[in-house]
Amino acid sequence: MDTAVKVxxxxxxxxxxxxxxxxxxxxxxxALDPDQASLTEAVQFSQLAMDGNEDKLAAKIDALEGCIAVxxxxxxxSGVNQxxxxxxxxxxxxxxxxxxGLIESLQExx
Length: 110
Known about the structure:
By secondary structure, this protein is α/β, with parallel strands linked by helices. It contains 3 helices and 7 strands. The chain is globular.
């Protein structure tokens, strides 16, 4: 999978996108190409309050190194700007969107 792209999903159950970027307890990272998708990593974070504390975003953004996008339920302007600076697109999806469906849509686009 040398042409694979990496994407991340903010999730609490590893099946659906159900977390706000800044308060996400877990990101699952997938490498995918048009034919296959593989879970490469699950990054856990301690529970954080949505308190506007910008410092907590740095660790999350660092964990997404190499990703082209992160799918989440919501993300603040500061998060969007910090992600964009690293070349990562923040993608907001409806609550409880299935990760598998997002992966299949991405694969069709590739």
